[in-house]
Amino acid sequence: MPSWLVLALALVLDAVLVLAHHAPHPLAALGNWVDLTYDFGADSVHWPDADFQDFRLVSEIKDFLSVGDDQFWTESNTVCSPEHLGTHVDAPSHFAKDRWTAGNIPLSHLVAPGVKLDFSVEANADNNYAVSKERIIEWEKVHGRIPLNAVVLLYFDWERRWPSVVDMFNTPNPADNTTFKFPGLDPDAATWLVSDRSIVAVGTDTPSIDRGQETQYRSHIILYDKNVYGLEMVANLSRLPATQFDVFIAPLKLAEGSGGPVRIAAFVLKEDGADLGYTPQHGATENIVVSYASRNVANWIDLSHPLSPTIPHWPTSKPLNYTLTRVLNSPYIEYRSFCMGEHLGTHLDAARHFSKNGQSINEIPLDHLLGVPGVKFSIKDKAAEDVNSVLTVADVEEWEKRHGQVPQGAVVLLEFGWADKWDEGPEVFVGSKVPGDPESFNFPGFDKPVVDWLFRNRDVVGFGTEGLSLDAGSSTHFPAHRAIASAGLFGIENVAHLDEIPPSIVISQQLSRTYARTCLVL
C-alpha cells in the first residue's frame, strides 16, 4: 500500500487493522536475532511468596478523544508488578547490600558474549541437578574456554513448563518453598566462575539461579557479592547454539531496583558469516557488526534516564511508586514492588498508543529494535529562537547535503538542546510554570509533514526525541504521534544524552512492556 494512502486513511485505519511496517535489517545476512524474553503480563510467573503483589495492568485511557472537531484514538496504562516477575534481572543488590541496583549495572556488563551450557539431559534425569565446576570444565573441553566477561546461560529444558507455576517450581504446593524441585548452579561452581572465568552474569530458564532445594541461596550470594548479576526465567534457550552469539540485556532502569523486568536478545551469527561478525571487511554492514559486537562495548552510550519518583512526566502518566516489600538479614534479601505509567522516563510509544489496532510493544520485530542505523537531527539553533520549533522536510534535506541520505530502516532522533533540563525539574523540562497543564507546554518536536516524508521516502522505522513528546509542546492534536502510529512505526520520548552522539550512529533498543532502554554504539 502506498505510504501516502496509509497516512491519508489514518482515521479509517484506527478502526480496522494497521499493517505493521517492516524494513530490511542491515545484519540479516550475517545472523539472526533470538528473543529470550517471555511476554510481561498477568500470566507471568513469579516467586510464590505471599508478599509478592500480582501483576496488574490498569487502563488509564482507552478511547477516542475529541479536540474541537478533531477525533483520534489514544491508549495508556499503568503497570503494577513485583520487580522479580517473568523474565527478569536479579541486580546484585537483591542479595548483597550496597552492590549494584538494576539502574546502575554498567553497559559493559549488559552487552556481552554469551555461552549456553546445555544440561537438559541431566536435569530431566534429576530435577534437583546441581551444575558443578567439573561439568563446566568438561563442557569447555568440547566448546572452548568461556570468554572473558561472558553471560553464562544454563539450559535445563525448563521452558516447556512455562507458564505453569506448578510446573515451573515442580511442586503441587508452590506456597511451600521447601518442596521446590528444579536444577541450578552449585555454589562451588559459582565461586569458580567468578574467580577463574570473570563472568558478568548467570542466566537460567528456571525460576532461580540456585536449585529449588537450596533454601539459603548460596550461589546468589556468591555471585551477587561480586556484582555478578542474575537472569531468571530466560526464554527460548533451546534456540541458541553453545557459542557464537552476543547477548543484549536491558533491565528496566529502576534507580533503586533490586531487580526488574528485562528484555534479553541474542544475535546468533550464521556459520558462513562468523568471520564477518568480528573482522572488518569491505562494506558498511560488516563495520556495523564489528562496532556493534560486545568486543567494543566501550563505544556504547546509554540514552536512558534512570527511573525515580521525581522525574518529569506527562500529567496523565502515573509517577513511579515504589513499595519496599521486604528486607531480610540472614541471608540478606531485599525486593520491592512498583507501579508506574507506561509512558514514564525514557519510554517507547508503540503504535497502539495512538492507533486502536496498532502494534503493542511485544509485537514490534526485534530487527527494528536492535542494530538498526540511526540518524540525529539537531535543531538547537531554531529552538533557541522559537521554543516550539519543529523539524521540517527542509531541515532533513539540508542535513542530507552534509551527511548523506538517511539510510533505509533507520531510527530518527531529534536533539534541540534539552540535555541539561531533565535534572532542572518538571517546570523547566516542559517549559511551563504549570506542569500539570499540557496546553501550556513549550518544547520542540517533529512536524507531521516530515514524519510523512521520512516514512514515504526513507522507509524509517521509528522516531525519538529528547523532549516529553514527539509533538511540539504547543500541539494539542498530536499530529506527529498520529502519523507515526498510523504508519505502524514507534516513537521514543525523553531520550537522554543526545548531545554525546554524532549525526550518524547504530542503535540498539531493548524494549519491555513498559519502557525502552536505548543504547547507541559509535
Automatic annotation (TrEMBL):
InterPro entries: KFase/CYL, KFase_sf. Coiled coil: none annotated. It comes from the Eukaryota. Keywords: Signal. Residues 1-20 form the signal peptide. GO terms for biological process: L-tryptophan catabolic process to kynurenine. This is Cyclase. The keyword Ribosomal protein does not apply. Belongs to the Cyclase 1 superfamily. One of its GO terms (molecular function) is arylformamidase activity.
